[in-house]
Every structure is written in structure tokens, then in C-alpha cells.
């Protein structure tokens, strides 16, 4: 556990049940949604759905407009990587299309009706409406044809990447300024250490079969994969257009750890199967938003990680053709970008890359494949004839600017059991349910249940319990961890962390005397082993400040918050996430003192830092939004209050159970603000 406030064992996946609730999960990017009062009754429409599954495996039908709209809006939050194709009938199209048209994940609409003349103006009124059709065979043919184009377009518009900003390189935290970059590099390092087996591959096969029941064309491919796959033909299978390729790419884009882990056998086969390449240049066609392009343009000299396999071509002409054939479809929305990648064949320490033309399913594309997590230095960016050329240099972990990062990653997981590492990474990401699963699995794998690793698993489970509001369980786990650590030698830091966590647990139970006792024990150890002005001591000051805040001892709280801030401002970069946490806490004190402008200033400082270092749906973003909302409510700026409270509500409900105190408190403020707005008007 960190601040509080307002805010090597042999490892295999075969025994880990990774997918218990897959019935509603779409493992591919595109989902076909059909809204028709008779969609689930008419036999002819059921047959159409069977044919359409050859283009899109996931089909969801609704015979109620409100249910369909609700599903789409919820999915917009819970599965932001998905894209929706909507079929509507004339009996519900007039109602649902205006309601959902603006959803950004809705990319195409088809009107399937009885009377075409009465519905022909749909195309003119709504750009996303692809066609108005009365013939089933035409509907199937058009959707299949357009879907092929959409998937090709998706390949050049969806490229998960993260940037390692050299100016912030001192912040080597998986939740810091370079958090996404560091997280993915660490994640790959950990996953590739997993010992995969035939049983793991069978888990993947069974998942594919389960999610493709009735899809005969894909079932045939899955059967073929089961019979013929070997590490030597992993590349051939990856490049083949099949559900395996689609599932892996979706997992990479959405950071779906469980699904991604099932592909480790294939990924290792791709990674291990190639010796150093002699190629010196490769090209990649890409369409990017202006915001994405600006991020690259402002990061010249920094590093970029491609968080998926990067498919390129040896031919500049092929890359330019891809740009010209796709950019015309959405030229007013996205920028055309050509990545020109220079490769030093003698450079050591790079991720694997190779000319795979001879092994690819599509041999005429002159394909070059870079291993996921490959790192490139951003050399330059220029624009000619409305095409931006971004010159990248393939980088090595031996690069002096990356060497510190490489050492950090290795030290972070050195001699640490694989699933403990995964649990820690997922916990950093607020993926608490998944993290808990890996901690529990690691405990099962350990022979010594009183080892240091076991203690860390219990401590990780305790953190999750606290974060999800189960403080009694958190205390139980931390007491188990503390008992283990107290029996070991040279683990003072681990003991200190347990004391800190137990202080948090008892503080939330309002046992302030016991909480302060544990915080002081933590502070005593940290002053002794880390120094009186250490970052660890600042954490204790912050937590004691929060305890006093909860006791309504506001002046004492501000004293300890300022002690924490003084140390952090002295030793941390100005955009460190720990500073953001301190600003939030000081802001809550100012709010309590009715110094609302000072409070808002603190919250804004915190938000500016967290925008750089946190994922959009991170829980700490919700805490800040909630504080903004409460403060604007206090100053009678109700529209602003409502806006921020709704943002907080969206994240809280995504991350926390409905019974969590943060969810309940935010909901109460929402209801109060809504009531005030009704009275106002």
C-alpha cells in the first residue's frame, strides 16, 4: 500500500481457470447488433444470422429498443475496444438510430426493411447508414464486403503504443509519468517467463471452440490449428485471417491479460523462431488522430513502444498504396502517416524482428514483423503531400538512455515468481479481480507457505481488499503477511509496509488509536532504514495527515500533509504521481476550511499530473473528479458539479462494486446536485 487519502517457481497456466464468464464477452473487435421486434422469432432472420457469423462471430439480437440502447451504452464503458455494426428493421429504426447514432463505437448501420421506399431517406439523414435493403442475400453480401474493408481500415487505425519521455525518465514507476510504457515492457518480460505447455494451448482451442459454436468456417480452422500447430509454424498461423489472429489482436489492444496469456505458446513461437535479420528499412502505413500525431511530434528524441506485433512491409510503395486506399474513407477525421523504420543489422539487444514473407500466409505483401514491445527512437517527423513521415530508429535495451529502464525492469521481477509479478502489475492497473486470481494461484504453486513470496501474495490480496472496501478482509491478509515477515531476517521494509497497510485498515474502521499506532511503527522503521527525509517517510506523514483529517483535526492534518509535500517537492520530479496525491489531500483540507478557490487550484494541479500518468478509467481520476464536483456544488456551480460527478460515477462503477463507499458517496452528491438543478429551473 502507498499513500491514503481522498484519495522463480515453475509456472504454467494449465490449472488456472481464466475465463469463467465468457458468454457475454466478445473476443474480437467487431460486434454485430440486430434490433428488430422479430429478430429472435422469424426463422429466415435466424438463418441470416448464421450466414453473417462468417463475417462477424459475435452477434447480439434485441427485440426491444430500450434494451438495445442500454446494452450499447453500457458496452461503451465496459468494452471500449469494441466497434459495433447495427442492423435495424423499419419497426424500430426510427426510434433507436437517433438515440445511439453519436456513439463513437458505432461505425455502420444497415436498415433491413419490408418497404424500401418508405425508408430511402435514411442514407441522406445519417452518414453511418450504409444501405437500406429488403433482400436478405444483398444484406449478407454487402455486410461481408464492407466488413472486410472495415477490418483492413481497423488494422491501420488501431495501433496501441506508448511513449517513454526521456525528460521524465527518473519516474520509473508503473503508475508514473511513463506508466503505460513501463507497464507493457514489464508485462511482456513477465509473460514470456511463463512455462507454456500443450495443456495451455488446449485451453486456447477450447475457448475458441466455445465462442464459435455454430460458426462452421471458424470451427474448421480451429480444428486444423489443433491438429497442425507447432512453434515452427506459429508465424503462418498468426498472419492467417482467422479467429486466432482476431482474438490475439483484440487482447493486445484492450490489455486483456487473461486472453492474451492463452496465446503465450504462439507468441513464444514467433519470438524464438528467428535469427537476427539483415533488413535495414521497413515501412508501416497508419491513420492517426491529430492528438496522437501531436504526441509523437512533441516527443522527438524520446522512445515509442508498439504494444502489439508491428506488421510492416519492405516496400514503400505498398505502404503508400495502403494509405491511399484507406485514407479517402475518413480523410477528414484522421491524418495519413508513414512510419519509416531504420534498422541497424549489427545492433544487439533489440526485440526479434524478421522478413517473414516466405512464412506468412500472405507471401506477396513483403511483410516484416516486429515482436510486440519493440522500442523505437522517434528521430524526425515531416509532412509532404498531406502524408506525415515519421522516421523511427529501432532501439536496443543497451542504448544508454534505455539502459536504466532495462535494469529497472529486470530488478523489478528478478527472482520473483511469475504469477506474483502478474498480480503486482495488474494491481497497479486497478485490475483487482484479475490480480487477486493470480495472487491466489501463486499461493497454490508455492511449496513454502511461509516464504517471503507467500507474504507478498497475502500483502497483495490485502491491498485489493482495502481498495474494494473490504477492510476486515484486508486486515486479515496483512496480519498473515506480517506474521510471515516477522519470522524472516532482513525484511524490515516489508514489515514497514504491512504496518502502513494495517494502519489504513484500522483507520477505515475508525479505530484511530490503533491506526496511529501502526503508522508510527511504520514511520519509526522508515526513518531508521531510509532516512528522516526519505520518500517512505513522506508516505507516513501523508497517512497520518489523512488520519487527523478523518478525526476533524484539520490543522494537524495540514501540518502533516505539508511535511509530506516538502519532502516530495524536494526529491521527486514535478510531475510525479505522489505529488498529485498530496495536492488532492491538501485540497480537501482547503475545502473543509471553505477556501474553495485554493481547493480547486490543488485539484487542478493533481489532475494535470494524473492526466499524464493514469489511464482514463483509473480510480484516482475518479477521486479528483468527485472532489471537483463536491467543490463546485459548494460554490453553487451546479452544471460543472454535475459534469464532474458524472465522470467520477462512470469510473467508480467501472472499477468498484456498487456497495463501495466511494460509489455511494458520489451517488449521493449526484442526487443532491440533480435535485438542486430541478429546483433552479
UniProtKB/TrEMBL annotation:
Swiss-Prot/TrEMBL keywords: Repeat, TPR repeat
PROSITE patterns hit by this protein: TPR (PS50005), TPR_REGION (PS50293), TR_MART (PS51996)
TPR repeat windows: 496-529, 538-571, 580-613
Species of origin: Didymodactylos carnosus
Gene3D superfamilies the record matches: Tetratricopeptide repeat domain (1.25.40.10), Toxin ADP-ribosyltransferase, Chain A, domain 1 (3.90.176.10)
Family matches, as InterPro entries: TPR-like_helical_dom_sf, TPR_rpt
Protein's name according to its UniProt entry: Uncharacterized protein
Pfam families documented for this protein: TPR_12 (PF13424), TPR_7 (PF13176)
